[in-house]
Every structure is written in structure tokens, then in C-alpha cells.
Write a structure and sequence with these properties.
With 86 residues, the protein is an alpha+beta fold. The protein has two helices and two strands. The chain is 20% helix and 7% strand. Strands 1-2 form a two-stranded antiparallel sheet. The chain starts with 23 loop residues before the first strand and ends in a 6-residue tail after the last helix.
Length: 86
Amino acid sequence: MALKITEECINCDVCEPECPNQAISAGEDYYVIDPNLCTECIGHFDMPQCVEVCPVECIPKDESHPETKEQLWKKYIRLTGTDSDD
């Protein structure tokens, strides 16, 4: 499933450049994640990079966008045009 940024976000700007899919952007009050672009870094990294760098732990899974790892992998392929196991 996609991730989301909660209102605990302190707008520290560290997550946005870490996202390989450019799914993170500045929202009205705090950063937001586009669920259509978020693959939880599947295809790029072993762990979601935004979660790894977030100093306040405000990036949980978005229960309103449930996706399996297979669905996230297919999204990665669609977004990148790649079918790599890297």
C-alpha cells in the first residue's frame, strides 16, 4: 500500500529528495505523498527511503490505499518502464 505523511510532519524537507518516484511534494500544511506514484520504494530500495530519513516517524502505511507487494511491483514497472529484479 502507499505511504502517507501525517500532520506530525515538521516540514524538515528531508523526505522529498529521497523519493525515487517523486511521489512526495509540499502540501498546504505539510508534505504529502501521491499514492499513484508511491511504491514504498519497491524496485528501488529494500526500505522506503522517506521512512528511513524521517526524524519524527510520521510516515505510516496509508490504509485507504491498500496494495500488495505484487501491485506495488507492477506500479514500479509502469512508472519506470523497467522489468528488473534489482
